[in-house]
Design the sequence.
């Protein structure tokens, strides 16, 4: 059981590196924004699996917090790309 | 039994996550990457969180996983929509073989 979860964590780590490649290479700013958004969602799944593997449920709190902060950051970057203020 | 179902759900989620990130790397322009990666990765992470619920049952961990699931289900399409809109408004070009741009036509029709 723990072995399977470790393999899954390895797959998610590979996904994180693919996102990091896109953040480093991305030709335009929206490409990097998409990659940051996807990286945040992948890390939420990573934290959920880590909570199961270690049996400590505070990792799920980290996942919830990460989802909140990642969403706020992505929307702020998207509004910045659009070139408008936050109150419209 | 719960362990088996949870493992299968996590396996499905891993496949979706991996192919979504592969689309993020392999596809040619921002809009293709957006539509490949956002949907697949959201779906995969939802499967992972449902697997956590099935594995641990209705205790503190399972309820928090459901909360996280509902939050991601609401916010991820919103963020993707905001990114697509921002990219189009900041004049990011479509891929050269893309054939249809309805948003541009709408903006021209409106003036």
Sequence:
């Amino acid at each position: 059981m723990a072995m399977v979860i470790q393999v899954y964590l390895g797959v998610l780590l590979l996904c994180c590196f693919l996102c990091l490649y896109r953040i480093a290479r991305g030709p335009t700013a929206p490409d990097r924004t998409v990659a940051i958004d996807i990286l945040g969602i992948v890390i939420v799944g990573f934290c959920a699996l880590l909570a199961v593997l270690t049996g400590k449920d505070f990792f799920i709190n980290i996942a919830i917090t990460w989802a909140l902060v990642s969403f706020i950051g992505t929307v702020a970057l998207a509004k910045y790309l659009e070139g408008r203020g936050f109150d419209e | 039994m719960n362990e088996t179902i949870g493992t299968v759900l996590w396996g499905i989620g891993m496949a979706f996550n991996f192919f979504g990130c592969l689309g993020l790397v392999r596809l040619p322009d921002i809009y293709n990457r957006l539509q490949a990666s956002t949907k697949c990765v959201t779906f995969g992470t939802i499967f992972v969180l449902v697997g956590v619920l099935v594995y641990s049952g209705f205790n503190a961990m399972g309820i928090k996983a459901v909360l996280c699931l509902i939050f991601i289900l609401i916010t991820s399409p919103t963020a993707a929509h905001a990114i697509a809109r921002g990219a189009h408004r900041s004049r990011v070009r479509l891929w050269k073989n893309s054939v249809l741009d309805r948003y541009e036509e709408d903006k021209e029709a409106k003036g």
User: Anything to note?
Assistant: Chain A touches chain B through 46 residues (CB under 8 Å).
